[in-house]
Design a protein that fits this description.
135 residues; mainly alpha; globular
């Protein structure tokens, strides 16, 4: 796998793992950052798919625009249009005047899991189940 592709995936996984940890804490949870990191994770995975297929990626942060670019290569990306559209709306949380609630963060993580799984399968990153017995 190309090193630059691995770097995008590593960054996306870092965002996903941090969002997943943050939502589990019990005190002073930052729901804004969970939503923002979910949006960032999906953005990086969409760009990783672009690198994987066309050896380049689109600049910008709009998940809808990035998704459109991916659909031009593989129309099965329509499957995650709703999730990308919803996550795109969380970009507003980067600035004052709007704050996420727990249900926003839960939805963001749920949508991210759908898109992440979908793109990881496209990139051939799904884990194969071992048939060996554990000792």
């Amino acid at each position: 796998m190309k090193e630059v592709l691995e770097d995008w995936i590593r960054k996306a996984e870092g965002d996903f793992n941090t969002a997943s940890r943050e939502i589990k804490i019990t005190e002073r949870v930052n729901y804004d950052i969970v939503c923002i990191l979910c949006q960032q994770c999906v953005e990086k995975y969409l760009k990783a798919f672009q690198i994987y297929t066309i050896d380049d990626f689109s600049w910008g942060h709009s998940l809808v625009e990035l998704l459109e670019s991916c659909i031009r290569v593989d129309n099965s990306f329509e499957f995650v249009r709703f999730e990308c559209s919803e996550l795109n709306g969380f970009m507003r949380l980067r600035y004052p005047a709007d704050f996420a609630q727990k249900d926003d963060a839960q939805r963001a993580l749920r949508y991210t899991k759908v898109v992440r799984k979908f793109i990881r399968e496209k990139l051939g990153l799904t884990k194969q189940k071992s048939t060996k017995k554990k000792k």
